[in-house]
Write a structure and sequence with these properties.
- Its main location: other.
- It is found in: Cell envelope.
- GO terms for molecular function: carbohydrate binding.
- The chain is an alpha/beta fold and 372 residues long.
- The chain folds into 2 domains: 172 residues, Response regulator (Rossmann fold), CATH 3.40.50; 168 residues, 3-Layer(aba) Sandwich (Rossmann fold).
- 43% of the residues lie in helices and 16% in strands.
- The chain contains 13 helices and 13 strands.
- A 7-stranded mixed sheet has the order 2-1-3-4-5-12-11, sandwiched between helices. It has a 4-stranded parallel sheet with strand order 7-6-8-9, sandwiched between helices.
- α2 links the parallel β1 and β2.
- α3 runs parallel beside α4.
Protein backbone atom coordinates (compact mmCIF):
# COMPACT_ATOMS: atom_id res chain seq x y z
CA UNK A 1 0.00 0.00 0.00
CA UNK A 2 2.98 2.36 0.38
CA UNK A 3 3.41 2.95 -3.34
CA UNK A 4 -0.31 3.39 -3.74
CA UNK A 5 -0.57 6.03 -1.06
CA UNK A 6 2.42 7.84 -2.49
CA UNK A 7 0.81 7.84 -5.96
CA UNK A 8 -2.43 9.22 -4.59
CA UNK A 9 -0.54 11.93 -2.75
CA UNK A 10 1.24 12.94 -5.93
CA UNK A 11 -2.07 12.97 -7.76
CA UNK A 12 -3.72 15.24 -5.22
CA UNK A 13 -0.78 17.61 -5.28
CA UNK A 14 -0.71 17.76 -9.06
CA UNK A 15 -4.45 18.30 -9.42
CA UNK A 16 -4.32 21.04 -6.80
CA UNK A 17 -1.48 22.66 -8.70
CA UNK A 18 -3.45 22.52 -11.92
CA UNK A 19 -6.37 24.11 -10.13
CA UNK A 20 -4.52 27.11 -8.76
CA UNK A 21 -1.87 27.84 -11.37
CA UNK A 22 -3.08 29.54 -14.52
CA UNK A 23 -1.30 29.52 -17.86
CA UNK A 24 -2.04 30.62 -21.39
CA UNK A 25 -0.26 29.82 -24.64
CA UNK A 26 1.07 33.34 -24.89
CA UNK A 27 4.85 33.31 -24.89
CA UNK A 28 5.12 29.52 -25.08
CA UNK A 29 6.62 27.70 -28.02
CA UNK A 30 3.98 26.30 -30.31
CA UNK A 31 2.11 26.51 -33.56
CA UNK A 32 -0.22 29.21 -34.70
CA UNK A 33 -0.68 31.51 -31.72
CA UNK A 34 -4.15 30.13 -30.98
CA UNK A 35 -5.87 29.57 -27.65
CA UNK A 36 -5.25 25.85 -27.22
CA UNK A 37 -2.71 24.96 -24.55
CA UNK A 38 -2.76 21.16 -24.76
CA UNK A 39 -4.04 18.92 -27.54
CA UNK A 40 -4.67 15.28 -26.65
CA UNK A 41 -5.06 12.45 -29.18
CA UNK A 42 -6.18 9.00 -27.94
CA UNK A 43 -6.36 5.86 -30.10
CA UNK A 44 -10.00 4.76 -29.81
CA UNK A 45 -13.25 5.16 -27.91
CA UNK A 46 -14.00 1.48 -28.35
CA UNK A 47 -11.84 0.32 -25.42
CA UNK A 48 -12.89 1.23 -21.85
CA UNK A 49 -9.30 2.04 -20.97
CA UNK A 50 -9.17 5.08 -23.27
CA UNK A 51 -12.60 6.34 -22.23
CA UNK A 52 -11.29 6.27 -18.67
CA UNK A 53 -8.29 8.30 -19.77
CA UNK A 54 -10.54 10.89 -21.40
CA UNK A 55 -12.45 11.31 -18.16
CA UNK A 56 -9.26 11.61 -16.11
CA UNK A 57 -7.82 14.26 -18.44
CA UNK A 58 -11.03 16.27 -18.19
CA UNK A 59 -11.08 15.93 -14.40
CA UNK A 60 -7.43 17.00 -14.12
CA UNK A 61 -8.14 20.29 -15.86
CA UNK A 62 -11.70 20.90 -14.70
CA UNK A 63 -10.82 23.69 -12.26
CA UNK A 64 -7.86 25.18 -14.10
CA UNK A 65 -7.38 27.92 -16.67
CA UNK A 66 -5.60 25.60 -19.10
CA UNK A 67 -7.37 24.90 -22.36
CA UNK A 68 -7.40 21.43 -23.87
CA UNK A 69 -9.12 19.42 -26.57
CA UNK A 70 -9.32 15.61 -26.75
CA UNK A 71 -9.74 13.79 -30.06
CA UNK A 72 -10.00 10.06 -30.81
CA UNK A 73 -8.41 8.35 -33.81
CA UNK A 74 -10.71 5.31 -33.81
CA UNK A 75 -7.99 2.88 -34.78
CA UNK A 76 -7.00 4.79 -37.91
CA UNK A 77 -3.54 6.26 -38.48
CA UNK A 78 -5.00 8.54 -41.16
CA UNK A 79 -7.57 9.87 -38.67
CA UNK A 80 -4.81 10.24 -36.10
CA UNK A 81 -2.80 12.45 -38.44
CA UNK A 82 -5.92 14.44 -39.28
CA UNK A 83 -6.56 14.95 -35.55
CA UNK A 84 -3.04 16.25 -35.01
CA UNK A 85 -3.37 18.62 -37.96
CA UNK A 86 -6.67 19.88 -36.56
CA UNK A 87 -5.05 20.63 -33.21
CA UNK A 88 -2.07 22.29 -34.91
CA UNK A 89 -4.49 24.60 -36.72
CA UNK A 90 -5.92 25.60 -33.33
CA UNK A 91 -2.49 26.71 -32.14
CA UNK A 92 -1.73 24.07 -29.53
CA UNK A 93 1.51 24.40 -27.60
CA UNK A 94 1.81 20.82 -26.31
CA UNK A 95 0.64 17.58 -27.94
CA UNK A 96 -0.07 14.52 -25.77
CA UNK A 97 -0.60 11.52 -28.04
CA UNK A 98 -1.19 7.82 -27.46
CA UNK A 99 -0.54 6.44 -30.95
CA UNK A 100 -2.69 3.87 -32.68
CA UNK A 101 0.38 2.62 -34.55
CA UNK A 102 3.72 3.61 -33.03
CA UNK A 103 5.56 3.81 -36.33
CA UNK A 104 2.81 5.33 -38.46
CA UNK A 105 2.31 8.10 -35.88
CA UNK A 106 5.75 9.43 -36.76
CA UNK A 107 4.50 11.54 -39.65
CA UNK A 108 1.79 13.08 -37.46
CA UNK A 109 4.17 14.15 -34.70
CA UNK A 110 6.76 15.36 -37.19
CA UNK A 111 4.15 17.82 -38.47
CA UNK A 112 3.68 19.03 -34.90
CA UNK A 113 7.41 19.37 -34.28
CA UNK A 114 7.76 21.38 -37.48
CA UNK A 115 5.45 23.93 -35.83
CA UNK A 116 7.56 24.06 -32.66
CA UNK A 117 5.06 22.06 -30.62
CA UNK A 118 6.31 19.95 -27.71
CA UNK A 119 5.36 16.29 -28.26
CA UNK A 120 4.65 13.94 -25.35
CA UNK A 121 4.17 10.30 -26.31
CA UNK A 122 1.55 8.95 -23.89
CA UNK A 123 1.45 5.33 -22.67
CA UNK A 124 2.51 3.98 -26.08
CA UNK A 125 5.89 4.92 -27.53
CA UNK A 126 6.08 6.49 -30.98
CA UNK A 127 8.93 4.78 -32.81
CA UNK A 128 11.42 5.49 -35.58
CA UNK A 129 11.32 9.29 -35.36
CA UNK A 130 13.18 12.04 -33.52
CA UNK A 131 10.05 14.18 -33.31
CA UNK A 132 9.37 13.31 -29.65
CA UNK A 133 10.32 15.32 -26.60
CA UNK A 134 9.06 13.12 -23.76
CA UNK A 135 7.37 9.81 -23.01
CA UNK A 136 4.98 9.20 -20.12
CA UNK A 137 4.35 5.54 -19.47
CA UNK A 138 3.75 2.78 -17.05
CA UNK A 139 6.78 0.53 -16.75
CA UNK A 140 5.69 -1.77 -19.57
CA UNK A 141 8.36 -4.41 -18.99
CA UNK A 142 7.33 -4.50 -15.32
CA UNK A 143 3.71 -5.09 -16.42
CA UNK A 144 4.75 -8.20 -18.32
CA UNK A 145 6.99 -9.34 -15.49
CA UNK A 146 4.09 -9.02 -13.06
CA UNK A 147 1.88 -11.12 -15.33
CA UNK A 148 4.57 -13.74 -15.78
CA UNK A 149 5.34 -13.88 -12.07
CA UNK A 150 1.69 -14.41 -11.24
CA UNK A 151 1.58 -17.44 -13.52
CA UNK A 152 4.80 -18.79 -12.00
CA UNK A 153 3.52 -18.30 -8.45
CA UNK A 154 0.29 -20.13 -9.24
CA UNK A 155 1.71 -23.02 -11.27
CA UNK A 156 1.35 -26.41 -9.60
CA UNK A 157 3.91 -29.08 -10.39
CA UNK A 158 5.61 -29.50 -13.76
CA UNK A 159 4.50 -29.75 -17.36
CA UNK A 160 1.81 -27.10 -16.95
CA UNK A 161 0.40 -26.17 -20.39
CA UNK A 162 1.14 -22.51 -21.09
CA UNK A 163 -0.92 -20.59 -23.64
CA UNK A 164 0.66 -17.36 -24.82
CA UNK A 165 -1.19 -14.35 -26.22
CA UNK A 166 0.05 -10.85 -27.02
CA UNK A 167 -1.14 -7.42 -28.05
CA UNK A 168 -0.83 -5.81 -31.47
CA UNK A 169 2.51 -6.01 -33.28
CA UNK A 170 1.97 -2.37 -34.31
CA UNK A 171 2.12 -1.33 -30.64
CA UNK A 172 5.60 -1.06 -29.14
CA UNK A 173 4.12 -1.74 -25.71
CA UNK A 174 3.03 -5.20 -26.85
CA UNK A 175 6.70 -6.07 -27.37
CA UNK A 176 7.63 -4.67 -23.95
CA UNK A 177 4.82 -6.50 -22.17
CA UNK A 178 5.81 -9.78 -23.80
CA UNK A 179 9.49 -9.16 -23.14
CA UNK A 180 8.74 -8.69 -19.45
CA UNK A 181 6.63 -11.84 -19.29
CA UNK A 182 9.32 -13.82 -21.13
CA UNK A 183 11.94 -12.62 -18.65
CA UNK A 184 10.05 -14.43 -15.90
CA UNK A 185 8.49 -17.33 -17.79
CA UNK A 186 11.46 -18.47 -19.87
CA UNK A 187 13.47 -20.02 -17.00
CA UNK A 188 10.35 -21.90 -15.95
CA UNK A 189 9.76 -23.06 -19.51
CA UNK A 190 13.37 -24.20 -19.78
CA UNK A 191 13.18 -26.18 -16.52
CA UNK A 192 9.94 -27.93 -17.47
CA UNK A 193 7.52 -26.13 -15.15
CA UNK A 194 5.63 -24.95 -18.23
CA UNK A 195 5.09 -26.52 -21.63
CA UNK A 196 4.28 -24.09 -24.44
CA UNK A 197 0.95 -25.09 -25.90
CA UNK A 198 0.24 -22.78 -28.81
CA UNK A 199 3.36 -21.25 -30.36
CA UNK A 200 5.97 -23.13 -32.37
CA UNK A 201 8.05 -19.93 -32.52
CA UNK A 202 8.13 -19.65 -28.73
CA UNK A 203 8.89 -23.36 -28.46
CA UNK A 204 11.88 -22.95 -30.80
CA UNK A 205 13.22 -20.15 -28.60
CA UNK A 206 12.40 -21.65 -25.21
CA UNK A 207 16.06 -22.00 -24.18
CA UNK A 208 16.92 -18.39 -25.01
CA UNK A 209 16.56 -15.90 -22.16
CA UNK A 210 17.14 -12.68 -24.13
CA UNK A 211 15.17 -12.32 -27.33
CA UNK A 212 15.90 -9.84 -30.11
CA UNK A 213 13.19 -7.58 -31.45
CA UNK A 214 12.93 -9.86 -34.48
CA UNK A 215 12.57 -12.96 -32.31
CA UNK A 216 9.92 -11.30 -30.17
CA UNK A 217 8.17 -10.32 -33.37
CA UNK A 218 8.16 -13.90 -34.62
CA UNK A 219 6.30 -15.01 -31.48
CA UNK A 220 3.92 -12.06 -31.52
CA UNK A 221 3.13 -12.83 -35.14
CA UNK A 222 1.72 -16.18 -34.04
CA UNK A 223 -0.10 -15.16 -30.86
CA UNK A 224 -1.18 -11.57 -31.47
CA UNK A 225 -4.73 -10.60 -30.54
CA UNK A 226 -4.36 -7.12 -32.01
CA UNK A 227 -5.96 -6.02 -28.73
CA UNK A 228 -9.23 -7.29 -30.22
CA UNK A 229 -11.41 -9.49 -27.96
CA UNK A 230 -13.04 -11.12 -30.98
CA UNK A 231 -9.68 -12.04 -32.49
CA UNK A 232 -8.55 -13.32 -29.09
CA UNK A 233 -11.67 -15.49 -28.85
CA UNK A 234 -11.10 -16.96 -32.31
CA UNK A 235 -7.45 -17.72 -31.59
CA UNK A 236 -8.29 -19.37 -28.28
CA UNK A 237 -10.94 -21.53 -29.93
CA UNK A 238 -8.49 -22.57 -32.65
CA UNK A 239 -5.79 -23.40 -30.13
CA UNK A 240 -8.07 -25.49 -27.93
CA UNK A 241 -9.51 -27.34 -30.92
CA UNK A 242 -6.03 -28.41 -32.02
CA UNK A 243 -4.65 -29.10 -28.53
CA UNK A 244 -4.36 -32.67 -27.32
CA UNK A 245 -5.44 -33.85 -23.89
CA UNK A 246 -1.86 -33.45 -22.65
CA UNK A 247 -2.21 -29.69 -23.23
CA UNK A 248 -5.40 -29.35 -21.23
CA UNK A 249 -6.28 -29.99 -17.59
CA UNK A 250 -4.91 -27.25 -15.34
CA UNK A 251 -3.45 -24.57 -17.62
CA UNK A 252 -1.80 -21.16 -17.45
CA UNK A 253 -2.70 -18.37 -19.87
CA UNK A 254 -0.74 -15.21 -20.58
CA UNK A 255 -3.43 -12.78 -21.79
CA UNK A 256 -2.14 -9.29 -22.63
CA UNK A 257 -5.00 -7.12 -21.34
CA UNK A 258 -8.42 -7.32 -19.72
CA UNK A 259 -10.52 -7.18 -22.87
CA UNK A 260 -8.73 -10.14 -24.42
CA UNK A 261 -8.49 -11.94 -21.06
CA UNK A 262 -12.28 -12.04 -20.68
CA UNK A 263 -12.76 -13.41 -24.20
CA UNK A 264 -10.05 -16.04 -23.78
CA UNK A 265 -11.30 -17.00 -20.32
CA UNK A 266 -14.82 -17.51 -21.66
CA UNK A 267 -13.47 -19.94 -24.28
CA UNK A 268 -11.36 -21.93 -21.83
CA UNK A 269 -14.21 -22.06 -19.31
CA UNK A 270 -16.46 -23.83 -21.82
CA UNK A 271 -13.96 -26.58 -22.70
CA UNK A 272 -14.79 -29.61 -20.60
CA UNK A 273 -11.20 -30.83 -20.73
CA UNK A 274 -9.95 -27.70 -18.98
CA UNK A 275 -10.20 -28.40 -15.27
CA UNK A 276 -8.81 -25.05 -14.12
CA UNK A 277 -6.99 -22.05 -15.55
CA UNK A 278 -4.93 -19.11 -14.31
CA UNK A 279 -5.17 -16.11 -16.62
CA UNK A 280 -3.57 -12.68 -16.56
CA UNK A 281 -4.82 -9.25 -17.63
CA UNK A 282 -4.10 -5.57 -17.32
CA UNK A 283 -5.92 -2.22 -17.07
CA UNK A 284 -8.30 -3.02 -14.19
CA UNK A 285 -11.32 -2.62 -16.44
CA UNK A 286 -14.59 -2.66 -14.53
CA UNK A 287 -15.84 -5.77 -16.33
CA UNK A 288 -12.64 -7.63 -15.47
CA UNK A 289 -12.84 -6.62 -11.83
CA UNK A 290 -16.24 -8.33 -11.75
CA UNK A 291 -14.64 -11.35 -13.47
CA UNK A 292 -11.95 -11.42 -10.78
CA UNK A 293 -14.55 -11.21 -8.01
CA UNK A 294 -16.45 -14.06 -9.67
CA UNK A 295 -13.31 -16.17 -10.14
CA UNK A 296 -13.39 -16.04 -13.94
CA UNK A 297 -10.20 -13.98 -14.33
CA UNK A 298 -7.24 -14.50 -12.03
CA UNK A 299 -5.59 -11.09 -11.92
CA UNK A 300 -5.13 -7.74 -13.58
CA UNK A 301 -2.23 -5.33 -13.58
CA UNK A 302 -3.65 -2.08 -12.23
CA UNK A 303 -2.23 0.92 -14.01
CA UNK A 304 -3.65 3.90 -12.16
CA UNK A 305 -4.69 6.17 -15.00
CA UNK A 306 -5.11 9.01 -12.52
CA UNK A 307 -1.38 8.99 -11.85
CA UNK A 308 -0.42 8.61 -15.52
CA UNK A 309 -2.68 11.51 -16.50
CA UNK A 310 -1.23 13.58 -13.68
CA UNK A 311 2.29 12.83 -14.89
CA UNK A 312 1.40 13.76 -18.47
CA UNK A 313 -0.35 16.96 -17.51
CA UNK A 314 2.45 17.82 -15.08
CA UNK A 315 4.91 17.55 -17.97
CA UNK A 316 2.70 19.72 -20.16
CA UNK A 317 2.41 22.37 -17.45
CA UNK A 318 6.16 22.38 -16.95
CA UNK A 319 6.64 22.98 -20.66
CA UNK A 320 4.05 25.75 -20.74
CA UNK A 321 5.73 27.39 -17.75
CA UNK A 322 9.15 27.18 -19.39
CA UNK A 323 10.46 24.52 -17.01
CA UNK A 324 12.18 21.21 -17.75
CA UNK A 325 9.96 18.22 -16.86
CA UNK A 326 11.26 15.59 -14.46
CA UNK A 327 12.13 12.24 -16.08
CA UNK A 328 13.13 8.90 -14.57
CA UNK A 329 14.23 6.73 -17.51
CA UNK A 330 14.93 6.64 -21.23
CA UNK A 331 13.45 4.47 -23.98
CA UNK A 332 15.06 3.63 -27.31
CA UNK A 333 12.45 4.27 -30.02
CA UNK A 334 14.70 3.14 -32.86
CA UNK A 335 15.87 6.66 -33.72
CA UNK A 336 16.69 8.21 -30.35
CA UNK A 337 16.70 7.77 -26.59
CA UNK A 338 13.46 9.36 -25.42
CA UNK A 339 13.39 10.95 -21.96
CA UNK A 340 10.59 9.27 -20.02
CA UNK A 341 8.71 9.31 -16.75
CA UNK A 342 7.58 5.91 -15.52
CA UNK A 343 4.61 5.13 -13.29
CA UNK A 344 4.47 2.05 -11.05
CA UNK A 345 1.95 -0.75 -11.53
CA UNK A 346 0.10 -2.92 -8.99
CA UNK A 347 -1.06 -6.55 -9.24
CA UNK A 348 -4.71 -6.96 -8.27
CA UNK A 349 -6.50 -10.25 -7.58
CA UNK A 350 -9.26 -11.42 -5.26
CA UNK A 351 -7.08 -10.92 -2.20
CA UNK A 352 -6.54 -7.17 -2.61
CA UNK A 353 -9.15 -5.97 -5.09
CA UNK A 354 -11.13 -4.12 -2.42
CA UNK A 355 -8.10 -2.41 -0.90
CA UNK A 356 -6.57 -1.29 -4.19
CA UNK A 357 -9.62 -0.35 -6.22
CA UNK A 358 -12.48 0.36 -3.82
CA UNK A 359 -10.82 1.76 -0.71
CA UNK A 360 -8.59 3.94 -2.91
CA UNK A 361 -11.63 5.52 -4.54
CA UNK A 362 -10.86 4.28 -8.05
CA UNK A 363 -14.22 2.48 -8.24
CA UNK A 364 -17.34 2.45 -6.07
CA UNK A 365 -18.31 -0.76 -4.27
CA UNK A 366 -21.84 -0.35 -5.64
CA UNK A 367 -20.51 -0.95 -9.15
CA UNK A 368 -19.87 -4.64 -8.36
CA UNK A 369 -21.74 -7.64 -7.02
CA UNK A 370 -20.34 -10.26 -4.65
CA UNK A 371 -17.66 -7.95 -3.27
CA UNK A 372 -16.84 -8.78 0.36
Amino acid sequence: MGRKLKALGLLATAVLTLGIVGCSSEGASGGGGGDLDVGIVLPTKDEPRWVQDETRFKDALADSDYTTEILFSQGSSAKEKENVETLISKGMDVLIIAPHDGTAAGSAVEAAKDEGITVISYDRLITDTEAIDYYVTFDSVAVGEAQGQYLVDNADGTGVPLYLYAGAASDNNAFLFFEGAWNVLQPKIADGTFVIANSSEAEALKDKADLSREELGSILGQVTTNWDPSEAKNKAETHLTSAGSDLKGDVSILAPNDGTARSIADVFATDGAISDYTITGQDAEKASIQYIIDGKQSMTVFKDVRTLVTDAMGMAVDVLDGNTPETTATYDNGSMEVEAKQTDVIVVDQDNVKAELIDSGYYEASEFSGLE
